Every structure is written in structure tokens, then in C-alpha cells.
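Example is below:
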Amino acid sequence: MEAYNNEEFAVGCILSIKTSLGDEFEAQVIAFDKPSNILVLQEGVPASGPKRDIRLLKANYIKEFSFLGQGQDPLDTNKCFLDLNSLQSREDSAIRQAQIDAERFGVGVTAEAQTIFDALSKTYVPSPP
């Protein structure tokens, strides 16, 4: 599939694709990287809900394709399903957990002593104040 026009792989295009490996599917172009010749495709157009199937496909593996239409911009930030507050709280929680884990490592102790401490700390339940 060397003789293609870059316009055919414009972001938002909905294509019906047959690969040289026998796969047939419909997908919307999210991105096309010309130097690597890789298409980023969103399958199951139109996307329903926050979960999407993404496929990376080397354009050389496209046996044939047909243009089905132009869809909405798949990268529209106004329709982004990412909950930034939830992501921020997950990041904060992961940082706190990493700090707690780092505090459990002994300084200047042998590996055997650290293993014993780790085993004991799993069974230790602090009493309420």
C-alpha cells in the first residue's frame, strides 16, 4: 500500500479496511504518522461510551480500503472522557503509598533483617489510640 495519498488518511476519516492478514474492520483515523507509516485507528465507529478499541496498523499491511465518510474529530477535548479530578486523586494516592513503602526500608540493615521486618510488618495490627 505504498501508493496512497496522505489526504485519504486524514484525522476523522472513517474507513473500511481489509488487511493482507485477512482482517476486515471499520475504523476512524485518529492519527497517521507518515515517517513510520503507522495509522492509529479507533474501531467500532461511532464510539459508544468511554471505552474505545484502538488499533495501530502499519499502512503496508492494508490490502484495500474504502472511504465511508468523515466523522467528528476523535481527539476533541470537549468530548474527552478523562476525569481529571479522579486521575489527580489516583496520582496522589499512589505517591502517598510509595512514600509509605519507602519508609519501611531500613538503612544499614542486612537483606535478611529487612526480610524479617517485612514479614513481621504484615502481621502487625496497630492498636487503636
About this structure: The CA atoms of residues 4 and 76 lie 26 Å apart. The longest strand covers residues 24-33. The beta strands are 13-19, 24-33, 38-43, 53-58, 62-70. Residues 82-122 form one domain.
